[in-house]
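name: query_chain
kind: protein
chains: 1
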Amino acid sequence: MTKFDNYIINNHTFYKEIYPNIWLMDNHKWAFWAWISYIDQMKISSPLSLYHVDYHWDAINDFQCEKSLSKISQLELTDLFNMVRDNYVSQDGFIAPAIIKGIFDEVHFYCSQEDTEIAFLPDFLESYNTKQYVRQKIEDMCAVKKSKQYAFDLDIDIFNNSVMYLESELWPQEKRDHFFQKCSGLIQNASIITIAMSFGYSGTNNDTKYLAKYVIKKIIEIRKLSNFAYQSHALER
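structure:
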């Protein structure tokens, strides 16, 4: 058992920064809180880009009426946490408030869901001067030239082909390994990484635990390699 195994739990209230700038959660809504916390801690004033890898698009906008828009625009850190805790931010609607709050002005999607609208509606994007890109291949997302800080957001349900709740049709390990090989640069250079376990959507409970352990191990290995490379380069100079 590793120290991370205790964090792999089916609990919608769970979220934790398990490694520097790597956040793990069950319910994906906590990604919004992770991003808000990072922006506040690092005193970042310019919008980031978001790279969203997920079975679901998670492009629901629950903040459309004037009252809700005014509220989220004015809330401070503690109140924003309460809003997430009390489910005013949903597991399929956590990206929209981040755009409204000015955290992101560019979103890249790599998603598999086919039974709903694809990504955000143009009117919403125009209202917040935000661009979006739908990537058909993970290679296309990884090949994008990164000109500013970005967040890498991963839901492990991307590795489950089953559309049935609590059922599994997992990617073979070889396919998952190739995915992380392709994404290594994207993971290495991300300012913040959020990982959603999404119990129920990512397969049976046991398969979700298995996937979560695999994903955490892969991402931290990649981050450690990038830190080692940076330190080695600094010593050579």
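note: The domain at 16-236 is CATH 3.40.800.10 (Arginase; Chain A).
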